[in-house]
Amino acid sequence: MQIHPHSKFEHISNRHSQQGMQKLLNRLVRKMQRDELVRQTTNQLRESLQVDRVVLYYFYEQWEGQVTFESLISEEFSILGSTGAEDCFNDEYAALYLAGRFRAIADIQVEPIASCHRDFLRSMQVRANLVVPILIPRGLWGLLVAHHCQKPHVWSSADIELMRTAAETLSTDPNILKT
To answer: pLDDT tens digit string along 10-40?
Structure first.
C-alpha cells in the first residue's frame, strides 16, 4: 500500500483545521469589537455623568456575575473583578431588573435599602448609585452601573435616560447578542 503525501484525508483534515481557525478568529474579532464598544460606552458615560466610576456587571450564570469593565476617575476606585454580595442579589431583584427596573440612589446613607445591599455598596466606596439592566432576548445579560464615591449625587432624568440608552445600545449589539 502506498500513501500519497497529499491524500484525500489530509486535504479534508486541512480544510477542517482552516474552518476551525476561521471560527476562532471570528469569535476573537467579535469579542474585541464587543469589548471596545463596552469600553467606549463606560468611558463616555463616566465623563457625561461626571461620576467616579461606571462599570459593567456581567452575569456569567444565573444571578452570579462580576465587574468585567470599568471606567474610573482614579485607580483608587477600581473594583474590577468584584462579584456581587452573597445572597443579596436574588430572584426578587432579578425579576425587577428583568422587567426593566432601574434604580437611582442619591445617597446610600439615607436610602431605605437592605442592610446587605448598603454594606456591599459601602465596601466598594459607593455613596450614590445608578443601575440599569442590559436586557437581551435570552434575559438579563448584565447591569450598567454608575457610582459616585466621594459624596451624594442626585440623578437627573437626563442621567437616567442616558444610562438607559447606553444599556439599550449594548443590548442590541450583534457582538453581545452572540455571547
So the answer is: 656 677 678 878 888 888 888 888 889 999 9
DSSP string, 8-44: HHHHHHHHHHHHHHHHHHHHHHHHHHHHHHHHHHHHH
**Model confidence pLDDT, tens digit, residues 106-121:** 999 999 998 888 998 9
- Size of the chain, expressed as the number of residues it contains: 179
pTM for this entry: 0.83
How many Å apart are CA 169 and CA 148, to the nearest integer? 23
110, 20 contact by CB (below 8 A)? no
**Distance of alpha carbon 126 from alpha carbon 118, whole angstroms:** 9
Residues 104/113, Cβ–Cβ less than 8 Å: no
C-alpha–C-alpha distance, residues 47 and 65, integer Å: 25
- CA-to-CA distance for 151 and 17, rounded, in angstroms? 56
Specify whether the CB–CB gap between 56 and 67 falls below 8 A. Answer: yes
* Segment 137-151 mean pLDDT: 94
Q: Give kind and range of the element (H or E) at residue 87.
A: none
How far apart CA 35 and CA 118 sit, in angstroms, is: 30
